[in-house]
Amino acid sequence: MTTESAADAPNKPRRGFWIFLRDVLVIIVIAALVSFLVKSFVVRSFYIPSASMEKTLLVNDRILVDELTPRWTGYERGDVVVFADPGGWLPVQPQAPRGPVVLEWVDGLLTLIGLSSSDSEDHLVKRLIGLPGDHVVCCNSLGQITINDAPIDELSYLNLPDGDTAASNEPFDVTVPENSIWVLGDNRDRSQDARAHQDLPSGGFVPLDNVVGKAFLTTWPLARIGTIDGQHDVFNGVPDPEE
Q1: Where are the beta strands (DSSP E) in 145-238?
Q2: Considering only CA atoms, which of 145, 131, 206 is closest in space to residue 175?
Q3: Among 15, 75, 131, 242, which residue's CB has the most CB atoms within a 10 Å radius?
Q4: pLDDT tens for residues 103-162?
Q5: Which is catalytic among the residues 126, 168, 180, 191?
Q6: Quick one: how many helices (H) and strands (E) in the chain?
Q7: Whole-angstrom Cα distance, residue 83 to residue 208?
Q8: Chain centroid to CA 39: how far?
Q9: What dihedral angle (degrees, nearest 10) is formed by the CA atoms of 84, 90, 96, 101?
Q10: Which of 151, 154, 139 minimizes the C-alpha distance to 55?
Q11: Contact assessment for residue 239 and residue 150, using Cβ atoms and an 8 Å cutoff
């Protein structure tokens, strides 16, 4: 025998619905928080807007960037890194017309939690060639870049015109300052990289504070899913810079 009144019975389904809705909202909030923390401290998504890293990365490739590991291990020569514009590397973008407020809000939310990459156009991706203290010179008689007087053979990954074996057609001789790196694109003849920005106050160097992390995986398109090669073997013979 039950003591439930007739008036209480119809309220049960309604109360059950609100409990279900509450649980769903809690799950969504937790998932968004976890995604935000992952994006902020672990992994972040970007897309490739230019051809400067071909053939390693193609236009509109989507990549994942490891933000966490380099905080413990640092960076290595050869790493493909994503970094915020140090100032003057990217052209000033005209103000895009505003879309519907709801869509902008949704995109902002997705970017915040790491499911969108609308801030990719404010960042660049290049290959790390010189670490702090490195003396980087282009080029020797074979067209190779030297780092601390050791030549590196980059032909395995550079995108050069047929018959061209020079790692750069723009000579340079730089010593990387403390807390900075020297970066170049793999598509050397079509990359506006450190070489093109030596006249800026930064000297073409990228402050380590601007580096988001190390690209490690191509996730889109499906046919190109795979790891991103740091080509570290190329740099094995490079000695540490002199103190």
Answers
A1: 146-147, 150-151, 172-175, 180-184, 206-207, 211-220, 226-227
A2: 131
A3: 131
A4: 545 555 555 444 445 556 789 999 999 999 999 999 999 999 999 999 999 999 999 999
A5: 126
A6: 3, 12
A7: 9
A8: 12
A9: 0
A10: 154
A11: yes
Greater confidence (71 vs 128) lies with 128
What is the sign, positive or negative, of the torsion defined by CA atoms of 160, 164, 165, 169? negative
The backbone torsions φ and ψ at residue 64, rounded to the nearest 5 degrees and listed phi first, read -110, 140
Active-site annotation holds for 55: no
Per DSSP, the three-state class of 112 is helix
* Residue carrying the six token digits 């380099």: 70
Pair 124, 51: CB distance under 8 Å: no
Hey, which bits of 90-235 come out as E strands?
123-130, 135-138, 146-147, 150-151, 172-175, 180-184, 206-207, 211-220, 226-227
Q: Which of 39, 45, 52, 117 is catalytic?
A: 52
Virtual torsion, Cα 226, 227, 233, 239, nearest 10 deg? 150
Contact assessment for residue 87 and residue 218, using Cβ atoms and an 8 Å cutoff: no
